Amino acid sequence: QYQDLQNMWVNQREQLRNSYQEIQELTRQIQRLQPEIEIKRNKFYLCPLQNDRHREAIRDAEQRGSSKHNELQNALQKAKDELACMLRDYQELLNVKLALDIEIATYKTLLEGEESRWVPLSCVSSPQDASYASSCTRGESGWLLGTISPLKEWLCSSTGCSGRWCGHCTWSGSRTMEM
Fold first, then answer.
1. Considering the domain boundaries, does residue 34 fall inside one?
2. Domain range spanning residue 174?
3. Which residue of 52, 82, 109, 115 sits 20 to 30 Å from the alpha carbon of 91, by its own alpha carbon?
């Protein structure tokens, strides 16, 4: 019996030593995992705070983006309105130009018709207006009526006037007669 007790005691002691070593191993593992647990615990407690900050940052970014989008939409609409106004002004100017072109063409036609009524003279000039082309015709009274420019006329009482400026020629002013 003593032997059995002694064997039992040796077994118990061996189990105790194994348990003690196992406790030491587990203690080392706990000590090694403790900092990691603290980090995880801190992250767990800080995570909602960080999530709140992230949510707030996302919300702010969305609001800024929405505000910028609205601002750009308003600027685009303003640019479209300005472009439409410019197009209306341009169309109005084109209409005015067309009307002026028609008026110019009408006056040109009238002037060409008026010029065809005058008999052109060669090389008629005055000392004052040497650069203008001229025309003349003999009126009913025998006077020679000539034009130096569309706005200046001259008269000559000499029947021998060849249509060139001579001593008998005088300015009559602006053109009022038509033949």
1. no
2. 120-179
3. 109
For tokens 């036609």, the residue is 109
Give the distance between the most distant pair of CA atoms in the chain: 182
For 94-140, write each residue's pLDDT tens digit.
Answer: 999 999 999 999 999 888 877 666 544 443 444 444 334 344 444 44
- Residue 127 inside a domain? The answer is yes
Domain-located, residue 24? no
- Is 135 a member of any domain? yes
* Four-residue CA torsion sign, 10, 13, 19, 24: negative
Structurally, the chain folds into a number of domains equal to: 1
The pTM for the full model equals: 0.37
**What does the block give as tokens for 48?**
């909602």
Write b or e for each residue in 153-179: b if 16 or more Cβ atoms lie within 10 A of its Cβ, otherwise e: bbbbeeeebebbbeeebeebeebeeee
